[in-house]
Write a structure and sequence with these properties.
Structural class: mainly alpha
Organism: Reticulomyxa filosa
Keywords: Repeat
Protein name: PPR repeat-containing protein
Distance between the termini: 52 Å
């Protein structure tokens, strides 16, 4: 209907077409954006930078990065679009949008191309959004060298106010690159008395994720149990009941269980009970009394805890997993997971299914997987 309306009415106001792009994006119809552009061009409607930025932004939202780059090149780099005496030129929003589009792909080369074009050709100075977008690209590209160059530029630029967004962006770089010592240096930088920068629970979860990625489970537990409470006393925005922080702590116990062998029964039981305590008392306490929606990821983690607990004798874990999926009426979760386990328990436990996210399963050697498959075939 949007496309039909634009075709049938003689709209000349480019803002109507910008609104149409937003509406199509909201309706999850990003493929219609190209048609909107074609209609505007066919009517010789003069675009403005707001329209271009709107198009580029929403193409990025829907991961249409090739199309986004093509339009940017067509509109700005080739300088083919001229209306009267004025050429449309990109602004800082345009460049920040394009750099942000490089983040998901970790395309640092293309991001730096936009930065150079922005500063050298168009003489536009980067702002905080530009810098943090660049850091996001570096994080996904695991590019510490360029990230540190950008960070040094930021902290030495009098026009850039280093805030929680900047701190979190640089923490994210070090977390994804498993540079935990440098990660903690950034945290300490933010907590300097002479220039205190308040942080929140998102900052804490980024650090916890960094420890997990580096497989430093003891350091993460120490950070959660000892350092976060101290940070919370000075940073009132830290929510100690944040579900993601709590969930990450539970994952630590799964990681520890993964490192234990099947003969270490006491240690396996200890960490399994720790995981259950967190799951039942902190993540989903309401499930004791009423039906509660459980995320697919958390159901998988719960299943994995029983898989790890019974790694020496897999058949013992099947009963507990059946109870989670079929008998506990207060656990509301994906019915697809129920059906997948019912029809293919081997797929769930051996990590073949789409619904399995068990890192410990997917990392097993083939002989171990064969053992599990043989046991589960007997059960099935």
């Amino acid at each position: 209907k949007i496309i039909q309306c634009l075709k049938e009415n003689p709209f000349q106001d480019i803002s109507i077409y910008s609104a149409a792009v937003k509406k199509c994006s909201k309706l999850k119809c990003p493929n219609l954006i190209k048609q909107i552009i074609e209609i505007a061009e066919s009517k010789n409607i003069h675009p403005n930078i707001i329209f271009y930025n709107t198009v580029l932004y929403h193409l990025g939202v829907w991961n249409k990065f090739d199309l986004q780059e093509n339009y940017f090149e067509q509109w700005f780099e080739q300088q083919q679009v001229r209306y009267g005496y004025q050429s449309l030129i990109p602004d800082i929003i345009t460049f920040s949008t394009m750099i942000r589009g490089c983040a998901n792909r970790g395309d640092i080369k293309q991001a730096l191309h936009y930065l150079i074009l922005m500063t050298d050709t168009y003489k536009i100075e980067p702002n905080l959004i530009t810098f943090t977008s660049l850091l996001s690209v570096c994080a996904n590209a695991h590019d510490i060298k360029n990230a540190e160059l950008i960070w040094n530029k930021m902290i030495n630029d009098p026009n850039i106010d280093i805030n929680i967004i900047a701190i979190s962006s640089m923490l994210n770089v070090y977390a994804k690159c498993r540079e935990t010592e440098k990660m903690m240096e950034i945290l300490n930088y933010s907590q300097r008395p002479e220039k205190f920068i308040p942080i929140n629970e998102i900052t804490c979860t980024t650090i916890m994720s960094g420890f997990l990625k580096a497989n430093k489970v003891k350091e993460m537990l120490d950070f959660y149990d000892n350092q976060i409470p101290k940070l919370a006393s000075n940073n009132k925005n830290i929510d100690l009941q944040n579900k993601l922080m709590i969930s990450l702590k539970s994952i630590v116990h799964l990681r520890i269980m993964k490192t234990l062998n099947g003969n270490e029964i006491k240690k396996l039981s200890f960490h399994h009970q720790k995981f259950l305590d967190i799951f039942e008392n902190k993540l989903y306490p309401d499930a004791k009394h009423e039906p509660t929606s459980i995320s697919l990821k958390d159901v998988n983690n719960l299943i994995q805890s029983y898989v790890e607990l019974n790694k020496k004798s897999w058949m013992k874990g099947v009963k507990d997993i059946e109870e989670i999926l079929f008998q506990n009426s207060n656990y509301i979760h994906s019915l697809k997971l129920n059906e997948t386990f019912k029809n293919g328990p081997i797929q769930i436990l051996c990590g073949i299914s789409y619904f399995s996210r068990m890192e410990s399963i997917s990392g097993w050697t083939l002989p171990k997987r064969k053992i599990i498959q043989n046991e589960l075939k007997k059960w099935k």
